[in-house]
What we know:
Blueprint: H1 5-10, E1 18-21, E2 25-29, E3 37-43, H2 58-74, E4 82-84, E5 100-104
Antiparallel strand pairs: 1-2, 2-3, 3-5, 4-5
Amino acid sequence: MADCIFCQIGSGKIPAEVVFQDETVMVFKDIHPKAPVHVLIIPKKHISSAADVTKEELPIFAHMLEAANIAAKKEDIPSAYKLVINTGASAGQVVMHLHMHLLGGKKITSIV
Ligand code: 5GP
Ligand code: ZN
């Protein structure tokens, strides 16, 4: 999608600090980190939110988890992290392109 910021990051049109990528996913550092390690995992294909993932797209979703684990190892937090997927504006989703937040590097507390 031409006007989607994460599509543009995923295709390299807008720069980001890339931690890992392959043909399906990209992991890059959040521009406003909320923890010592805060990266975003996105599919390169535009999917609006977790609520819009189809059965056919589930392998992409699984691959996002694999990429999260690769990034967690690279960032030296292989077994202690929090994954967050805000889904829908009222749940805090601001960028309407599916993304997982990978947070770690300190003790992280939250509502769950
Ligand atoms: P959301 O609230 O939609 O779950 O999270 C969107 C996240 O994307 C926020 O944490 C925000 O800091 C990050 N973000 C928004 N625009 C950009 C950008 O242009 N580059 C990077 N690296 N992160 C961004
Ligand atoms: Zn997009």
